[in-house]
Fold:
Amino acid sequence: MSTVTSNGMRELLIHDMRTPLATISGYAQLLQRRAARHNSDVHQLVNALEHIERAAVRVETLLDELAQLPEGDDEPRTEKLDLVDLVRRVSADTNTIGRPRVVVLPSVPELIGEWNARAIEHLVANLLGNALKYSLEEQGVLVTVSCDGDCAVLEVVDDGIGIPTAEQALVFERGYRASNVSARVRGTGVGLAGARYIAEKHGGTITLRSEVGAGTTVTVRLPTSRQAHVSRCAAR
Structure:
């Protein structure tokens, strides 16, 4: 099982702050534009303010986690949680008013497992953030959640830029960015590395398949309990 060092987790938490900060900035700009046009759609304005509030709380939570991060390499504290519900919540926070780009299609109504809620939230947010970042604004992202025996399977599918075949094994390394995006899209090369750390810390796996110009599919397989052997969640 791969380990997550304190320095690695600090870098991941700092990276994760970019998503809610981008949400705050985006919705603030939206409110400014609508105010300038004297748009009186109260429901949409309230919705935007709720997104800003949730994003601000998210930043505060990440800062708290960063301050409380212990030295060393502790095992993640787990609790029973519903992966379907978590994915829906993270997706809702990612979608924008009037232009939802993330569609969640679970094959089961709920999927209960023993995971660290914050860590899995980081993982899902990173995968969605990457899928949206490397896709055109008019392109959507499909998220599926399914159960395969003792394993939860999460897939994030986009129709974006794609990753060159020779570099697909490298994009999970911290700091590495694919050659076809490094000069075009701002990034740190931390998101997928952090997702891999979290998946492996839970005894799971993360893989991807991609084609330049056609998009990328990232698949995460997580044991639903500590008793579920890691080999049961190996990529198939």
